[in-house]
Amino acid sequence: MMTIFSMTRRSFISTAIAAPFVLKAGISRAATSVKFSLAAPFDGSNAAFFLAQQNGWYRDAGLKCQFDAGGGSGEAVSRVGSGVYDAGIADINSMAEFNAKNDGAAIRNVYMVYFRSPLCVGTLAKSGIAKPADLTGKTIGAAAPDGAYRLFSTYAKAAEIDPTAVKWNMVGLQLREAVLAGGDADAILGFDSTMYFGLLKAGIKPDDIKFLYYADVGLDLYGNGIILSEKFRTQNPEAARAFVDVSARAWQAAAADPKAAIAALKAHAPLINADIEEQKLLWLIKNQMTTEESKAKGLGAIDEAKLAKSLATVAAGFGLPTIPKPEDVFDPSFLPSAEVRKLPA
Q: Both ends of the chain: CA-CA distance in Å?
């Protein structure tokens, strides 16, 4: 028997899928090409884009999109900042750093997706680390370029622990979970979902995996969102708005029906483990996308005061010469209507 909840959700999905995508380009005009950099391999974190692509939503909006796998936010930001890519999805803090360190760079985040930063300390139950103070004297595995490592001193200050009182096992990102699973570290640093599913693949039981979030000590940072190159944003704003609008509908639909999003991802990348990637997407919806802020305002928009505070934190942690201004990081003029940014109930 269909419940009221399932009827409501099904109605929401139908509305999202049926919603028209209007671009003044018209059918007669050639489609605008959009080269987009993901911040990860083809996985659950980017399934929404493939759901929209499979359903023809980008095509109907006059766009021809190419979605390329990436090796992290740093790579996605560099691709977009260089102008080789028109758009991407990446951590807003890494993007702010790129703009600050590259004269003339004018990348902008135009649609926030992760309202709670996934930066955290990952550990195992056997390590006995239940609070930040427990890290004293412990060995932490980390990758030098990773944002979680580079902001650790800021986290330590907020958590009132001595950052010099920990030992380090510096490894590549691909070995980070292995050093924790193998006992060569008591904890590791990174994105929660990346570490969680990496540890599962290493044979660690879910109940044994624990996290200490940077957000829990007051580092209330935004995370990943859609970024646009200066050229795409300023020279083809109509196509850019169409792209953001379709992507907003895609995230809305993926949150309403994760299985459909993963099926679209599987059609594009047949070698993925659909069950694991669905778990990852569900994780992101629950832990990064759904907060009191996003439930109240929808996805996409930011709170300027929160962003300003987080940029001050990032500037200190990354050693930037000046604190970026919110308007130099986020451009709200590309936001779609509130209706297509609303999270499903």
A: 20
| Structural domain boundaries enclosing 134 | 119-217
Q: How many CB atoms lie within 10 A of CB 303?
A: 17
Task: List per-block mean pLDDT (blocks of 10 residues) for the chain, which spans 345 residues.
Answer: 38 45 50 96 96 98 97 91 96 93 92 94 97 97 88 93 96 92 96 93 96 93 96 97 98 98 98 94 96 96 96 90 95 97 92
CATH (domain of 303) = 3.40.190.10
H or E segment and range at residue 237: helix 237-256
State which of 217, 237, 272 marks the end of a domain: 217
Which pTM value belongs to this model? 0.87
Which pLDDT value is given to residue 23? 43
Q: Are 235 and 176 in a shared domain?
A: no
Number of domains in the chain: 2
Helix ranges (H only) for 190-303 are: 192-201, 230-235, 237-256, 258-268, 274-284, 292-297
Q: Which of 217, 236, 261 is the last residue of a domain?
A: 217
Task: Look at residues 254, 202, 187 and name the one whose alpha carbon lies nearest to residue 48.
Answer: 254
**Is 206 exposed, middle or buried (CB count within 10 Å of its CB: 0-12, 13-18, 19+)?**
exposed
Lookup: tokens for 110: 């135009």
* 17 within domain boundaries: no
Q: Is 337 exposed, middle or buried (0-12, 13-18, 19+ CB in 10 A)?
A: exposed
Token readout for 168 is 């380090």
Tell me the pLDDT of the chain averaged across its residues.
Answer: 91
